[in-house]
Amino acid sequence: MADVSHRSGDIGAHPDVSEMRDRYARVLGGRGIVGVDGLLLLAGLYAAISPWTVHFAPTFPQLAQNNLIMGIAVAVVALVLNMAPERMQGLSMACAVIGAWLIVSPWVVVRHPDTGAMWNNIITGAVICLLGLAAAGMMMRNKREA
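User: That's the sequence. What structure does it adopt?
Assistant: Structure tokens below.
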């Protein structure tokens, strides 16, 4: 019968110990990116539900659909950035573009938005744009250091 008991001891004899330590150091070095991506996820979820929380969904259904789609897109991108940040670096700039779109969308989609819808999209779009730029900057800095 095979011995499958777990022995407490040093992992230093493991053949991949140096690779595991390097990967652990990379993950710990990139914790700021995960924090920004988490905030980006929350901002995207807020953008998706904001037409119903600010109560402009019945008045401007097209803007509500726009916010729902763009908010879900930002949340999905943020989730993907959390799971595979090395491979999805360019998507953080996509969040910045979506944030800029959210800023101008009340005038493009509706033409004459009310004050609540307008300020909601300006603030939410600016937050998403800044977080997208921050995530892109952090990823580029970490890529340069590696």
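The mean pLDDT is 85.
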